[in-house]
Write a structure and sequence with these properties.
heterodimer; A: about 30% helix; B: mainly alpha; 5 helices; about 0% strand; elongated
């Protein structure tokens, strides 16, 4: 049943926090949860990705979890059920084995019976021997800021009361309240073949629907597994690292909101980029900078529906701020994402502050214009169409960018230091105008073509003269600067530069000399000076995949294959990547899993697969 | 138009307005997180298990019910020999109390899709029962329900003349 196998002893009790890579993601494309190797659900926001958390033990051991495990387990083995986002964890004890299967059920499209808004289903099966299972349910609504209570609802289970939502926990393991309002606990002894269930049903505004356990629950789980398998079987890719590419698109699907089409950057907040560091950000929003890569990943693997839904969301959300683009939006297109700190939380392994919201939403980042227009152009190239309203909107964006492109900005890395003339931002303005030129040939986008030609020439002149340092023989991070930045690898991907041309090649050589540490790429050197945030950071995972993609496109297929192979070795045991890779051992750190890392992996793998000599 | 026809028309118009106000308050209470009691959903799921269809069917049934109740209120006012917003609000509040104390707790016995705390969920019976005073749908539910029904009664009492 389990696709991947990893054996490890249960976590040492001296470190209360699991490693980031110890988690796996489950969800229903509206929200997502992280399950640790110990069978603990330690992160779940309801009802949507960016809502307050019900379980947040990943950020504070007292902030709520829902744990099921076998008492006295000595080894744990886990993997996603093949082709799905349902995770199976097997606990080995001296007397027997417990298989725990966790997932959010998906309702049948033409369901004729009621189903809850969210259903988290956990199946416990004694595979052999005899085992004792322990269930511990400790919700803490709103990151632990709301004091709720439990109420026994007879044979329906337990409800969480005094909250602005309805939630019922049902289980055929007898549960008792051992800390009033704080914890429900239960134990049961199972023999080979015995199955037990636990189910958390959630409804935000209406009466909770409580689906039955037993055979009916098995049918719902089977339906969910079948749905995911059917969806993942549509993946049109047969190249290198197929399993990881397939896992990436499955993870990406979980992060694509089914009700709006938005794709969030990651389902978590404030998982630190460095141990006990302050680089802790809320990534539960949709970044325009990721859009072109996300669309490319969906399109290149054959998921046109998801690509269309995402583009629709993108054009709809950005209408709210037309003609200006914001760096990020929430899944409903909300633009005001006020950043706040949750001072009562300890943070992951003491990394404070824990932040919700993101102050970067108000920054000027010029590269987003290029990324959005590249996304639209890619969609059109794949057969998509634009209506009159969208053409008008794009023309307005172009007009706005004529005024903006000479301004300094915060750049792709959202620096919190003073604005600069970032080379990548300027080049992406060129990409924006260039795509407008291309789109203008097919669609009635009212913008003067000769003006577009002129501005493209002007930008290229600026970038090539001020963004390239002849002494260093490299493009530099900002005009007149003396260091480079890994985002410049994307100049080739977006068509500003040709992969393999002299300047790109020398820039790559300079990056290897200055940004590589033990085979992993930093996004820039001297982080604090570059981005204005104290402390250092690890290797930004996506940059490494951009390097592999660059190498594949520049004709260095062998080097690309070697690099991609090495990077894939840094996935966690179930094939997931975080925002960054630890410089010591490549382990996942930062928000997890990260959509940008996974789409970059897909792009690199597809580039290698399509390389002429691959 | 004779006096009877005018009176019926008045009841119909203000019955619709009062029902809309009642529905609006109940809906706002849901969206603001004060209560999860949705009478249209409870009514609609008596006929179908498809949530969106249930909401639509339930809303229509609820609006028709609100109209019919307006005639009931008229007869109560006529029996009392007086109307007005205060008697209307009091009758409305009493209506809300009857709903909370008697009708909603009986739902598990009458509703084909409502589960019972004694038997648990099973087959089609998966909907959480309201419990005493519908407290299972949020501890502010009695307050919002009584207020919404008092508003319904006040509008009718204030607009219907005997």
């Amino acid at each position: 049943m389990a696709a991947a196998v990893a054996l490890s002893p249960p976590r040492a009790r001296t470190d209360p926090f699991p490693a980031i890579g110890d988690y796996a993601l489950i969800g229903n494309c509206r929200t997502a949860a992280l399950v640790s190797r110990d069978g603990a659900i330690e992160w779940l926001c309801l009802p949507t990705f960016s809502s307050p958390a019900l379980f947040a033990a990943i950020l504070d051991r007292g902030a709520g979890h829902f744990t099921i495990r076998a008492a006295g387990a000595t080894l744990v083995e886990r993997g996603y059920v093949d082709g799905t986002n349902v995770i199976a964890t097997t606990f080995h004890t001296p007397s027997g084995r417990l298989r725990l299967t966790d997932g959010f059920t998906l309702a049948a499209p033409a369901a004729t019976e009621l189903y809850p808004q969210h259903e988290l289903l956990r199946r416990m099966e004694c595979v052999d021997g005899e085992i004792e299972i322990e269930v511990s349910f400790e919700p803490r609504w709103d990151f632990g800021r709301v004091r709720h209570r439990f109420a026994r609802r007879g044979r329906l289970g337990w409800s969480i009361t005094h909250c602005p939502f309805g939630a019922i926990l049902a289980s055929d393991v007898p549960l008792e309240e051992d800390r009033p309002g704080a914890r429900l606990r239960g134990r049961a002894r199972l023999r080979a073949g015995d199955v037990r269930w636990a189910m958390l049903a959630y409804d935000q505004n209406e009466a909770v629907v409580v689906p039955p356990l037993g055979a009916a629950a098995q049918r719902r789980l089977d339906h969910t597994i079948g749905w995911w398998r059917e969806w993942s079987a549509r993946c049109r890719y047969d190249g290198p690292h197929r399993d990881l590419v397939k896992r990436s698109i499955l993870a990406l699907k979980l992060m694509a909101c089914s009700t709006t089409g938005a794709v969030i950057a990651a389902p978590t907040t404030s998982l630190p980029e460095q141990a006990q560091g302050a680089r802790n950000w809320d990534y539960r929003f949709c970044w325009i900078r990721d859009s072109a890569l996300v669309l490319h990943a969906f399109l290149s693997l054959g998921y046109t529906e998801e690509a269309e839904a995402f583009l629709e969301w993108l054009l709809h959300a950005t209408r709210l701020t037309w003609k200006r683009f914001q760096v990020m939006y929430d899944i409903f297109g909300e633009t005001h994402l006020e950043e706040r700190e949750l001072a009562h939380l300890t943070g992951y392994r003491g990394a404070r502050p824990v932040r919700i919201g993101n102050a970067a939403h108000g920054q000027l980042q010029l590269d987003v214009y290029g990324e959005l227009l590249a996304t639209v152009a890619a969609y059109v190239a794949a057969g998509g169409d634009l209506d009159k309203g969208e053409c008008r909107m794009l023309a307005g964006v172009g007009e706005r960018l004529f005024d903006l492109w000479r301004c300094p900005d915060q750049g792709i890395w959202e620096t919190r230091s003073a604005p600069r003339h970032h080379t990548f931002s300027k080049a992406m303005c060129w990409v924006a105008f260039d795509r407008l030129r291309t789109l203008g040939k097919r669609f009635p986008i009212r913008i003067d073509a000769s003006r577009l030609d002129g501005v493209c020439e002007a930008i290229r002149g600026e970038v090539e003269s001020r963004g390239y340092d002849e002494g260093l023989d490299s493009y530099v991070a900002w005009f007149g600067g003396r260091e480079t930045d890994a985002s410049l690898l994307l100049l080739a991907r977006y068509g500003y530069a040709r992969p393999g041309d002299a300047r790109m090649e020398s820039t790559w050589r300079y990056m290897r000399r200055t940004l590589q540490r033990d085979g992993l790429l930093l996004r820039y050197t001297d982080s604090a000076r570059f981005d204005g945030v104290a402390g250092a950071e690890n290797s930004f995972a996506a940059c490494n995949f951009w390097a592999a993609e660059y190498l594949a496109n520049a004709g260095h297929e062998k080097a690309a294959a070697a690099l991609l192979g090495r990077l894939c070795g840094h996935a966690n045991d179930v094939g997931l990547f975080a925002e960054e890779m630890c410089l010591d051992d490549g382990a996942p750190v930062g928000n997890f899993p990260q959509a940008l890392t996974h789409v970059s992996l897909v792009s690199a793998a597809v580039a290698l697969y399509q390389a002429p000599t691959a | 138009m004779d006096a009877t026809a005018a009176q019926i028309l008045r009841i119909l118009v203000w019955g619709l307005a009062a029902t809309a106000a009642l529905t609006g308050v109940m809906f706002a209470a849901q969206r603001l997180g004060y209560s999860r009691l949705s009478l249209p959903l409870l009514l609609g799921t008596m006929f179908t298990g498809e949530r969106s269809a249930a909401n639509a069917v339930g809303l229509v049934a609820y609006l028709l019910g609100g109209w019919l109740f307006a005639f009931g209120y008229y007869f109560v006012f006529a029996t009392l020999g007086r109307a007005g917003w205060l008697p209307g609000a009091l009758i409305g509040a009493a209506h809300g109390v009857v709903l909370l104390v008697m009708l909603l707790p009986m739902m598990p016995h009458l509703h084909p899709r409502m589960a019972s705390e004694y038997e648990g969920p099973g087959g089609k019976r998966t909907l959480q029962p309201p419990g005493f005073l519908a407290l299972n749908y949020g501890y502010r539910t009695p307050l919002t329900t009584i207020l919404a029904h008092a508003l319904y009664g006040a509008i009718l009492g204030g607009q219907i003349t005997l």
